[in-house]
């Protein structure tokens, strides 16, 4: 006989910035909390670029992405939530008493009063380079993410793509690579304006509207030359390269969740200003949530998390305070401060 399910006040699906901060703030609201992450570690999309410097988080200017993940993960665990890894939630069952059972793809079940969907962009997969035979070079010098900068030192790097990550990687690699060339099939880039201006004013060779169309390898193991083509004129040029970084976007997988009856588009669920979805007791936060005053920064994800947790608390207890007290006046932190040996007198 299966063990009876344990009922939680709040279950957070997703372990990115919004999910981690929601886990912490849920502890401030004295909620019995569970966080479920499909991967085997916390971090969400930030895991794609661990060495990227992040400048827009209050109090940390700048901070390496991997360090921010570590800080947020530590904070998320302060009030001892239950953390579950390696489970992708796909199913939702509403019980007669209004509580929910969340069902993982692998069959595990989780019982909860409320849910926060902090799914980011879903289970993300990098869009692969659409050139025959490209996959053979993935073990040598064709990359879909930049995990470390040092391996690119002194090398001729070609970046294909025009989104935030492509622009950021160009700026990060420019000081250490021998040369950086960016090819993008559109004249306009999709990154933040300041970062685009920084890239264009540096030594980065920016070529638009160009596309990477052919790969060459002298030894059959690594790419040493490429053809880039002007998408308007058809003009081609060959470039010698030591490494290629491809950022052609992300393919998102919200397997199962799109069948829950949520009001959503391809990437987002539509939420109210209180981060309520159209399903009772289910809230959203971070990149997955879309509402009129949305702020697409990590700082915005933190704010979403607070609003979503407060809404979950009030959904369960309409007489509860609208928000948690600040940490200097919050009883839950007095014991934590004593554990740290802090004298509050």
Automatic annotation (TrEMBL):
PANTHER family: THIOREDOXIN REDUCTASE 1-RELATED-RELATED. This is Ferredoxin--NADP reductase. One of its GO terms (molecular function) is NADP binding. InterPro entries: FAD/NAD-bd_sf (IPR036188), FAD/NAD-binding_dom (IPR023753), Fd--NADP_Rdtase_type_2 (IPR022890), Ferredoxin-NADP_redctase_2 (IPR050097). Keywords: FAD, Flavoprotein, NADP, Oxidoreductase. Homodimer. Its cofactor is FAD. Residues 8-301 form the FAD/NAD(P)-binding domain. FAD binds at residues 37, 49, 89, 124, 287, 328.
């Amino acid at each position: 006989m299966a063990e009876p399910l344990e009922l939680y006040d709040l279950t957070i699906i997703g372990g990115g910035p919004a999910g981690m901060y929601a886990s912490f703030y849920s502890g401030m609201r004295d909620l019995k909390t569970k966080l479920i992450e499909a991967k085997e570690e916390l971090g969400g999309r930030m895991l794609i670029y661990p060495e990227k410097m992040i400048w827009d988080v209050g109090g940390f200017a700048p901070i390496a992405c991997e360090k921010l993940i570590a800080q947020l993960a530590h904070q998320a665990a302060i009030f001892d939530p239950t953390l579950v890894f390696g489970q992708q939630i796909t199913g939702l069952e509403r019980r007669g008493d209004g509580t929910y059972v969340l069902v993982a793809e692998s069959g595990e079940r989780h019982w909860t009063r409320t849910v926060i969907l902090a799914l980011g962009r879903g289970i993300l997969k990098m869009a692969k380079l659409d050139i025959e035979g490209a996959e053979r070079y993935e073990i040598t010098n064709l990359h879909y993410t930049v995990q470390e900068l040092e391996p690119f030192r002194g090398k001729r790097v070609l970046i294909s793509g025009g989104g935030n990550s492509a622009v950021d990687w160009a700026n990060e690699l420019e000081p250490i690579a021998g040369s950086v060339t960016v090819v993008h099939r559109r004249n306009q880039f999709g990154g933040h304006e300041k970062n685009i201006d920084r890239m264009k004013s540096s030594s980065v060779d920016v070529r638009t509207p160009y596309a990477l169309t052919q790969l060459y390898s002298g030894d059959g193991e690594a790419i040493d030359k490429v053809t880039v083509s002007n998408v308007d004129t058809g003009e081609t040029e060959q470039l010698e390269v030591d490494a290629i970084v491809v950022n052609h976007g992300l393919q998102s997988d919200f397997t199962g969740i799109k069948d829950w009856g949520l009001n959503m588009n391809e990437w987002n669920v539509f939420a109210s200003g209180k981060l309520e979805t159209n399903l009772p007791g289910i809230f959203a936060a971070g990149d997955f949530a879309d509402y009129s005053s949305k702020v697409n920064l990590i700082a915005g994800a933190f704010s979403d998390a607070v609003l979503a947790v407060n809404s979950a608390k009030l959904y369960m207890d309409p007489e509860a305070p609208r928000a948690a007290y600040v940490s200097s006046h919050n009883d839950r932190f007095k014991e934590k401060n004593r554990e740290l040996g802090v004298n509050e007198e």
